[in-house]
């Protein structure tokens, strides 16, 4: 895991927005995409919809366990415990939120733009016997329906890449966090310039999964503008991406008949994530930040 030095060089906001506006995802469309995706259990590592974390490329740890490990690593950064109020921003089908509640005793509120995911996530909380502490609801992270300072911590596990404006989401997160509250998120980023020959694959990937990427050095100024202090940025690409892309490709290919029925022609033109496995310039970040004490 490579720790990136905090870069205090200020980057003008319009550089970010130009990068993001190229393929800015539309929340309703992202919700519709995940509605269809939610029902296909075979394409998910357990109840997770995110990459796994493996110590080495040869690790034989199953994807489900590696995905839970990433959740646990992030939860640890939140320094939460029994009674903490946690917002799971972009909750998927509930695996991370339920796991965090079970392991820490926290109360979790999860949101997703996908109604189908919210239904599955609430069923999961119920079957885990945690429905009194874990609640999922449909909401858009761009306009959070919560009062100011209503959470002690926010986790955004692989959801930010699907949102149209990172600055706006971060400002919303800052508003709902109490002073001293912490944020941990993961995001997609350009580790090194993507070679021209690989750019079309990256573009197709972003288009298929309705996501965008950033530059790592954009994070500290973006957080500052939103009112948050940046604590840590970790490049965890090596531990996450390649094996996850290959795992997902294999599962998608196995589930292909089901996918054709469910997604018809619209599903990502059946983009094969194995095509992304050998683009080391493409990366995966973990970012830790906090709202400063008043
Ligand atoms: C890759 S999935 C990750 C799900 C979950 N965090 C996990 O790790 O299993 C991305 C999630 O972000 C949610 N999402 C994307 N855009 C959103 C938005 N504008 N507001 C709320 N949720 C959003 C999607 O609905 C989906 O649940």
CATH class: Alpha Beta
- CATH architecture group name: 3-Layer(aba) Sandwich
The main sheet comes to: 8 strands, mixed
Classification by helices and strands: alpha/beta
Order of strands side by side in the largest beta sheet? 1-7-8-6-5-2-3-4
Bound molecules: S-adenosylmethionine
Count of beta strands: 8
Q: Name the poorly predicted regions.
A: 5-22, 264-268
Order of helices and strands, N to C?
A: EHHHEHEHEEHEHHEHHE
- Termini separation comes to 33 Å
Number of helices: 10
Looking at the structure, the CATH topology is Rossmann fold
Beta-strand proportion = 15-25%
- Counting structural domains, the number is 1
- Anisotropy-based shape: globular
Task: Specify the helix fraction band.
Answer: 25-40%
* Radius of gyration over all CA atoms, rounded: 18 Å
CATH superfamily (homologous) name: Vaccinia Virus protein VP39
